[in-house]
Amino acid sequence: MKRDAEELLKELCPDLTITKNMKEWVQRAEQVVAKTTQSRDIFPVVDHTQGEGPWIYDLKGNQYLDVTAGVAVRALGIRNPVVKDFEQRISDYLRQVPGHDFDLIPQILLAERLTSITPGDHAKEVFFTTSGGRAVESALKSVMDNSHRFRFVAFRPAFHGRTGYTLALTASKHIQKNFFPQGLDVIRGPYPYCFRCPFKQEEKTCNLECIDYLRDSIEYGGTDIAAIVLEPICGEGGIIPAPVKWFKEIRKLADELDTKIISDEIQAGLGRTGKWWSIEHGGIVPEYICTAKALGGGFPFGAAIGPKPLFTDYSRHSETFGAEPYVSLLSLSVLRTIESDGLLDNATKRGRQLIKGLTEIQESSNIIGDVRGRGLMCAVEIVTDKTTNTYDPKKRHAVINNAVNKQRLWILGAGRSSIRFIPPLNITAEQIDIALERFGKAVKSVK
Ligand SMILES: Cc1ncc(COP(=O)(O)O)c(C=O)c1O
């Protein structure tokens, strides 16, 4: 930890003795910080004062190559010089002036920018939020407000957040849902998880039986659908890209039902897959797009972009901290950097390199059943062995543990048995090679 950072901590907590003993900090956290998603058995305490690009450090000064980008948040890596300089230039600007209550130039410009990169000729509006779940929640409320329909279609697996309404759509792990009541009426369809096709089809034999099944579910469950909510690449559920032909059928179904499509791009959007929005790979236009994570350049920020008017009147929906000028300007700077630095193209090229390297590792490993992804949103699925392809969360845990604690490669799980690679969009070819080398070693020692 940097010296001036230690001094600041002592100033704020005068009785503090600073220790670099990570076990001690983990124990202290265990006492007072609620459990969230990641196992405290694996991940060391991160030094909050150091890091650059895709590199992060633990309290002891060990350096890690981070291919998670803070779960797809740091699209430009840590302390990207452009954003850092920009942050300094705007450090005196007003904060705590929520864009929702008053019109502000930065918010207006950002809304114009976001609508201009969003597909479709329909007139659009933007509602700004402070998280991904709230962005999806806002789109759901917008659809209900305008259509007076309250039934939604969502998929399995799917992750759309953990707030009241969005948790009803989420079906990623039972642990996220058990004993929380359902806030919305949801008709569930099977996600096109082709590696584990519930209809036992392969690419050549597939007739999109999953769409037929969904049609039946709607026929029995109610056709008054407010919206079909989908992730073009199922993220938390295992980084599963839907096949291109699936999107056209979903659009057809939505049109038949006179319903909307909400594309949840919280993780996959803003250039991660090599296009601004991952649904563009499917060649269809959704009515709504939800974004967050990368949008705020590291600050909590999200947005629902949808047909005008999003809400039928004042006070139908709002959020105290939405679209403050500071974060709106930072967001504009992130979008401009993605464009000016050619990061959509970089995501496509580095993504191809990553998939090629992971496929080579798969060839010499018996525990990688599948390699998949689009752009810089890739995954491997860990299995007991390649003949049965049985999910193997224990082996996955061992691979992640090896990667983080022996190879100093910071990776995360996704779904029941997968490991995800979602590095910053500006990752270099050399850094991808380092990640592949480290990952290969981490996999090799797990039998
Ligand atoms: C696809 C998707 N939707 C929604 C969310 C919820 O976002 P947040 O945690 O910011 O509420 C996430 C978070 O990982 C996500 O990946």
Description:
- The chain has 447 residues and is α/β, with parallel strands linked by helices.
- It has two domains: 3-79 and 342-444, Alpha-Beta Complex (Aspartate Aminotransferase, domain 1), CATH 3.90.1150; 105-340, 3-Layer(aba) Sandwich (Aspartate Aminotransferase, domain 2).
- It has 14 helices and 17 strands.
- The protein has a seven-stranded mixed sheet with strand order 4-12-11-10-7-5-6, with helices on both faces. The chain has a four-stranded mixed sheet with strand order 1-2-3-15.
- A hairpin with a 2-residue loop joins strand 13 (368-374) and strand 14.
- Helix 4 (81-89) packs antiparallel against helix 11 and helix 12 runs parallel beside helix 14 (429-444).
- The chain is globular.
- The model has no long low-confidence stretch (mean pLDDT 95).
- It binds pyridoxal-5'-phosphate.
- Pyridoxal-5'-phosphate (PLP) is lined by residues 131-133, 136, 159-161, 231, 235-236, 264, 266-267, 292.
CATH topology assignment of the largest domain: Aspartate Aminotransferase, domain 2
Low-pLDDT runs of 5+ residues are none
What proportion of the residues form beta strands (DSSP E)? 15-25%
CATH architecture of the largest domain: 3-Layer(aba) Sandwich
Largest sheet: 7 strands, mixed
Distance N terminus to C terminus? 37 Å
How does the overall form come out from the CA principal axes?
globular
CATH class (first level) name of the largest domain: Alpha Beta
Q: Say which molecules are bound, naming each kind only once.
A: pyridoxal-5'-phosphate
For this structure, what is the CATH homologous superfamily of the largest domain? Type I PLP-dependent aspartate aminotransferase-like (Major domain)
Helix content: 25-40%
DSSP E strands, number? 17
Average pLDDT, all residues: 95
Radius of gyration (Å): 22 Å
Structural class: alpha/beta
Number of helices: 14
How would you write the strand order of the largest sheet? 4-12-11-10-7-5-6
Can you tell me the number of structural domains? Answer: 2
